[in-house]
Amino acid sequence: xxxxxxxxxxxxDPSRDRLYTEQPLDPHLHREMxxxxxxxxxxxIETEGRALRTLARGRIPKWVLLTGWATIGLGSVxxxxxxxxMMVTAIHHAIVTNRxxxxxxxxxSIVPAxxxxxxxxxxxxxxxxxxx
Length: 132
Hints:
The chain has helices spanning 41-57, 62-97, 103-130. The chain is mainly α.
């Protein structure tokens, strides 16, 4: 009663014509969500971006929204006030001393801080009215 092992254990002949693989239609369907490491520089940027994107979409609890207004919003409003005061002082000083040629570089140096401050306020504003 000895059984001879068969030469081929597969029921079909595995030639190159018949080999195939199944691939899902959506390659992102089974992809694991990548959580960035906030301790390295790029991971820190990714983490901040995810937080601000979630904040801007409006899918956040009320306590996070209030905390955002208390920290980011209050800091942005104070920065906006200081930038405005600096601009008014610079314009007044340029008019009094009749030196308008130094005014344009000074105002251009203030623009990046103004844009960042207004961007933070816009994100908080969108989060407030999209979530309600």
